[in-house]
UniProtKB/TrEMBL annotation:
Belongs to the pyrroline-5-carboxylate reductase family. It is found in: Cytoplasm. It catalyses: L-proline + NAD(+) = (S)-1-pyrroline-5-carboxylate + NADH + 2 H(+); L-proline + NADP(+) = (S)-1-pyrroline-5-carboxylate + NADPH + 2 H(+). One of its GO terms (molecular function) is pyrroline-5-carboxylate reductase activity. The keyword Membrane does not apply. Residues 160-265 form the Pyrroline-5-carboxylate reductase dimerisation domain. It comes from Skermanella aerolata. One of its GO terms (biological process) is L-proline biosynthetic process. One of its GO terms (cellular component) is cytoplasm. This is Pyrroline-5-carboxylate reductase. Its EC number is 1.5.1.2. Pathway: Amino-acid biosynthesis; L-proline biosynthesis; L-proline from L-glutamate 5-semialdehyde: step 1/1. Residues 3-96 form the Pyrroline-5-carboxylate reductase catalytic N-terminal domain.
């Protein structure tokens, strides 16, 4: 594997792959980001290079993971055209950047998978949605499935235009959930709790609810109803949150804004 960019998301994936022992030989091109502390554990060979020109000559990766910011793509991607070979698949995790964007810079023969993971991949609980181009072989698709599946769930789509909304919902989704922790804690403080207790119970509540949602076969709406006693305290809160001007129109607007931004990042 060749990993280009080892920042927050590339690093989260690499952490997950190393922990799951999905990869054993990785060349990482990373000029300045954090490098995993356990890189080079027994049987794993991790080589860090400061730039594309430092990649060991003859290195022939089966997969090139592109994990740099969309804003630096123009200067980074053309440098990897030399790695386009029948046996190599490019796996991009960049927001917005389309398959056409990559074929314009790597050539029409390049096998490209456009994927959108999220940071819970670092603890094996990621969600990745991916779309392949026509040059991707079944074996390469399986390889990408194995990589993404090692750090969480995987869904494939055929319609690339869905990736903008996917980016908005699951790519950025963890940020909204962490914001929910912050807002719950702040509201707890406003209701009279000390800050540390408010943060502790907000964090544990979101984490516990996430775990319950992950393990339960019940729809989210039933899990919600299980908490809501008729005329009880939760109902009082939900009447605010589920009002016409409650959380749904707000989240609709947030997701629409992120989806639009993903489309803008395409060019
Ligand atoms: N952070 C997240 O939750 C998610 C991010 N993504 C995507 O992942 C990509 C990376 O995002 P983050 O990890 O958040 O950003 P980041 O800034 O943490 O990581 C990018 C890394 O690329 C490195 N870099 C810069 N120029 C480079 C070059 N020429 N060659 C190799 N590496 C270079 C930087 O030093 C940095 O460590 C973006 O395209 C983003 O859209 C996708 C899903 C979720
Ligand atoms: O905010 C971003 O643009 C990236 C893509 C999804 C999560 N982080």
């Amino acid at each position: 594997m060749l990993l280009v960019g080892c920042g927050k998301m590339g690093g989260a994936l690499l952490d997950g792959w190393l922990a799951a022992r999905t990869v054993d030989h990785v060349v990482v091109v990373e000029p300045q980001g954090a490098f995993p502390a356990d890189a080079g554990a027994a049987g794993q060979r991790i080589v860090r290079c400061a730039g594309v020109s430092r990649i060991p000559p003859g290195f022939d990766p089966d997969v090139v993971v592109i994990a740099v910011k969309p804003q630096v793509m123009d200067e980074v991607v053309p440098g990897y055209a030399g790695f386009v070979r029948p046996g190599t698949v490019f796996l991009s995790i960049a927001a917005g950047k389309t398959i056409d964007y990559f074929t314009a810079r790597l050539g029409a023969d390049a096998a490209i998978v456009r994927a959108m993971p999220n940071t819970p991949a670092s603890v094996g609980r990621g969600m990745t949605v991916a779309v392949p181009n026509a040059a991707v072989t079944p074996e390469q698709r399986r390889l990408c499935e194995t990589l993404m599946g090692a750090v969480g769930q995987v869904a494939w789509v055929e319609d690339e235009s869905m990736m903008d909304a996917v980016t908005a919902v699951s790519g950025g989704g963890p940020a909204y959930v962490f914001l929910l922790i912050e807002t719950l804690a702040k509201a707890g403080v406003a209701a009279g709790l000390p800050e540390d207790l408010a943060m502790k119970i907000a964090r544990a509540t979101v984490a516990g609810s996430g775990e319950l949602a992950a393990r339960s076969i019940e729809p989210a709406a039933s899990l919600r109803k299980n908490v809501t006693s008729p005329n009880g305290t939760t109902q009082a809160a939900l009447e605010v949150l589920m009002a016409d001007d409650g959380i749904q129109p707000l989240v609709d607007r947030a997701i629409a804004a992120a989806t639009a931004r993903s489309r803008e990042l395409a060019s």
